[in-house]
Design a protein that fits this description.
The chain is mainly α. Helix content is about 50%, strand content about 0%. The chain has one domain. The two termini are about 20 Å apart.
Length: about 90
């Protein structure tokens, strides 16, 4: 990994975050499968595409505060837990 070699030898890649994911589209699923076939660490918690993220930005409020029960809020929480678990 060039960034690690050139700038930070201590850098650890925990995984690839899949965001703006559309589960009904074929291409994103194929791209994720290609990454996995290359033995790249794709995290299991995907963040879905939604206009609600842009709405929360326009309100200058993080999505978990703007819409605490939204599907993407739960996905962000799951991603946080996954990243936290992988640090050990």
């Amino acid at each position: 990994m060039e960034l690690k070699e050139d700038h930070n030898p201590e850098l650890r890649l925990l995984g690839i975050v899949v965001n703006q994911f559309n589960s009904q589209a074929k291409l994103p699923r194929e791209l994720i499968e290609t990454l996995k076939q290359q033995d790249l660490p794709v995290l299991e918690s995907y963040i879905s595409a939604t206009v609600k993220v842009k709405e929360s930005h326009s309100k200058r409020m993080p999505l978990p505060f703007y819409l605490p029960k939204h599907k993407v809020t739960n996905q962000i929480a799951a991603l946080f837990e996954e990243l936290n678990a992988s640090k050990t």
